[in-house]
Amino acid sequence: MKRKRKLIRQLYPSYVAVALVSVAAMAWIAISAVSQLSLEENIAGLKSQALLVEDILGKEFSPDRSAPIDAICKKVGSRMPVRITVMTTDGKVLGDSDEDPARMGDHSTRPEVKEAMAGKVGTARRYSFTLNRKMVYVAIPLRRDGELAGIVRTALPVTELDKTLRKIFLQIAAESIVVILLTAGISLFVANRINRTIAAMKNAAVRFAGGDLQFRLKAPDTEEMSTLAEALNTMAAQLHERLSTITSQRNQLEAVLSNMIESVLVTDEDGRITRLNQSAEKLLGCKEDKVRGRTVQEAVRNTALNKFVRDAFIHGGTREADITFVGNPDRYLQAHGTKLDDASGRSMGALVVLNDVTRLKNLERIRRDFVANVSHELKTPITSIKGFLETLKDGALHDPENADRFLSIILKQTDRMNMIIEDLLTLSRIERDQEQGSTRLERGRIIDVLEAVKGACLPKAEQKDIELHFSCEDAITARINARLLEQAIANLVDNAIKYSGPGSKVEVSCKLSGGEIIIEVADQGVGIEKEHLERIFERFYRVDKARSNKEGGTGLGLAIVRHIVNSHNGEILVASSPGEGSTFTIRIPAD
Fold first, then answer.
1. Among 503, 415, 489, CA closest to 461
2. Same domain, 245 and 272
3. Cα separation of 162 and 151, whole Å?
4. Which tens digits make up the pLDDT trace of 394-406?
5. What does pTM read for this prediction?
6. Which residues contact 336 (CB under 8 A, 6 or more apart)?
7. Largest CB tally within 10 Å, which of 144, 286, 478, 498?
8. Does the residue 38 lie in any domain?
9. For the packed helices 400-436 and 358-393, what is the interaxial angle rounded to 10 degrees?
10. Within a 13 Å sphere around the CA of 309, how many CA atoms are in the beta-carbon half?
């Protein structure tokens, strides 16, 4: 790339060149004019001197009187700084102030003599071989009685004229050099001043381009530059105002998009991602700066979503669809899409809003499972009760032995229904108190809760020959609802006893760690398979329905435990492997 030259390096040489050419031209014109004037003055003087010689010769002139004429020429020539030559009309020299006429040849071929012979004043400037120097000649016709009688020629050496001209030339040259130097200095000052003004404009433009739109140029003295500076300042002010508006609007849009719960995805007309908000980044598992410029299929690799985005752009209008992301676990999205057009109606891309409805789907599934489970749980005892009542009605009532057995079964099934209803009511009450924030929490010792659980569960453990072991420091306290926490831990211990074999051990421990109280219930029972761990806290969910029914559970115990722990602002976790037992961990804030 050709290197750019600075403006001053372009302006200053041109200024100096113009000055040089101008001064040189003026000097040449002046010297030419002076030379011509000097020559004309010398010619005029030579003419006057020739006329004077003509007057001196007077009527004494005659081609036959060469000696007197030569004497007059030498006498007049000695008093005048010119050479005087008198000749006949045929070019024969009669007298000369500097040479012997007899030794001088024919002068009729001389240019000035020819003009004089024609009756004119002849002038010439040439080299004289007689005198060996350049001379200026003026020849005039000498007339007698109106007739051409001879020629009078005067001459002056050019050397004198050249000396005069040389002095004038040197003077003009010196003055020209001074003028050139002054012009160069003034040009440099003007060029620097223009360059500084333009440099200030450039620096201002660079600052404006760099974003410093609050900078303002000082108005120069020059009208044009001042107008340009004002225009730049006005432009900067307008740009600052517009950029401030755009930035404010962008910040508002960014704030809205960033704080939206919904996931927003924007693509261009080629289906390439141009925008993702934070919710979309979390939902789709990708960062905006990593996927910008890539297609939806490349970034997310979900065929249904890619097709939905393409259809939203191609067909326009508002579109809706349910999209499933297969994984562990599956995720369910509700998509709303529309085509984006600019103010002129040109297509810009597509806008897609995604809502994660996985939780709603799970809740819907849980609701369906709950309805099915509660119906199943209640239908079994109701069917049993109805069957035995019909049997009693058909005559078994009069058979004392069978009637007593049937009534015992009816009573047992009634108690089971009552337990289910009681657990449902308990669960409903806990949820209601939790939602209303009315669960009463008071400072209490954890060891007191564990002692109560031990007293309630020890008889059942002894019946199955299971060892119960409790460990807790006396000083551990927390804000708790002792009755509810006791119920939760008792449910866990009861489950541990139910699903543990004779001779095994159930350990209940409590410790303080990092501002949290950790209560663990560990057993050596049958354990739980991995696929059931995420759902065991759902209502009526059973890992082994046959075994659960045999043990007499309602399927609501762990759901109650989870809600009680949530009401204490805590969480419950489970770790288990089949055949190796289970460990349930309750974590609640310390006092």
1. 503
2. no
3. 27
4. 776 677 777 777 7
5. 0.43
6. 318, 319, 320, 352, 353, 354, 355
7. 478
8. no
9. 160
10. 26
